[in-house]
Amino acid sequence: MIHGLLSRRDVGSAHLAVISAGSFDFTPREYSPPAGSRSSLGTGPSMETVRAGLCSLYVETDGVRVIIDPVQFGEDEDVPLANLVATPGLDAGLEALGTDPMSIDYVLLTHGHFDHCSGVLQGANSSRVRFPNATHVLRVEDWAEGGLSEEWRRPLLNYLKPVEEAGLLRIIGSHSYEVSERLILIHAPGETPGHCVVQIAEGAAYYLGDLVHIPAESKWIGWAAGSHDRDLGKMIDSRRMFLRQVAETRAVCVFTHAPFPGWGMFRSVADDQWQWDPVVEGGKPPSGGITRGQEFA
Ligand SMILES: [Zn+2]
Fold first, then answer.
1. SS3 string of the chain?
2. Cα Rg, the chain, nearest whole Å
3. pLDDT tens profile 65-118
4. Measuring CA to CA, which of 70, 108, 142, 234 is 20 to 30 A from 156?
5. What is the 24 CA–ligand 1 centroid distance (Å)?
């Protein structure tokens, strides 16, 4: 499953596909939560290393083709992700879907971290834009100077300057941005000041970006991996709001670092605690049941 590339699912009238850029080792113990942040929210998740995914999402709905968080790393690329195993990536994924980068209309970035936008260029040492006909959307807080810390801003500029120079970057500031009626980028700050989630198919599906990084964070919403850009208070508020919503509506969810194939649902298990139930391919759907779509990976 680690080397899986593509997993399709139809939700309502939207055609969705997770395209995986690979997987890496994520060790919670490498990060310490801010002092005192766990005391009222439980003792925190397991400290064991988990295998985390790099899931981009392709969406086709209302006549537009969209890539959310295009991630890709080349074999020879020096990437600060432990034991990264990369797949052939976006172009291969799109080809398997019968389409190509030229036909993508929008690239939505949930936030400005490199592991969510590295695929906007055709390789680390290239300044060629991968999706030359796409409007690339990012919130202003992550783009403006002083938004992200220097450590994260530098790679963001490396990846997005060529996009800006090609006239393809759209910086947004409103609370939500409608690509279409059934595809809406919604501000969900915390991970970064401009972090967003994407509502798809009138809320039947969501792409959650880094609202949570690993499943344990939905159970321990005060827990978060280390980053200087994080506002933990806002992150807890965003997690509470969106996890409650997707659990109540039984929305199909993908978060970027979910293990491939990335699909699952959240279910409330206690006050302020949600359980991530991944869809196991070839197995039974999680309780509550995903009735839409099928696995093709
Ligand atoms: Zn991330």
1. CCCCCEEEEEECCEEEEEEEEEEEEECHHHCCCCCCCCCCCCCCCCCCCEEEEEEEEEEEECCEEEEECCCCCCCCCCCCCEEEEECCCHHHHHHHCCCCHHHCCEEECCCCCHHHCHHHECCCCCCCECCCCCEEEEEHHHHCCCCCCHHHHHHHHHHHHHHHHCCCEEEECCCEEEEECCEEEEECCCCCCCCEEEEEHHHCEEECCCCCCCCHHHHCCCCCCCCCCCCHHHHHHHHHHHHHHHHHHCCEEECCCCCCCCCEEEEEEECCEEEEEECCCCCCCCCCCCCCCCCCC
2. 18
3. 999 999 999 877 788 899 999 999 999 999 999 999 999 999 999 999 999 999
4. 234
5. 11
Q: What's the gap in Å between 63 CA and the centre of ligand 1?
A: 29
Token output for 160: 């997005």
Structure-block tokens of residue 46:
């397991």
**How many angstroms separate the alpha carbon of residue 179 from the centre of ligand 1?**
23
Burial class (CB in 10 A: 0-12, 13-18, 19+), 227: middle
What is the pTM assigned to this prediction? Answer: 0.90
pLDDT of amino acid 74: 82
Pairing of strands 6-11, 14-26: antiparallel
Q: How far away, in angstroms, is 207 Cα from ligand 1 center?
A: 13
Q: Cα of 116 to ligand 1 centre, how many Å?
A: 6
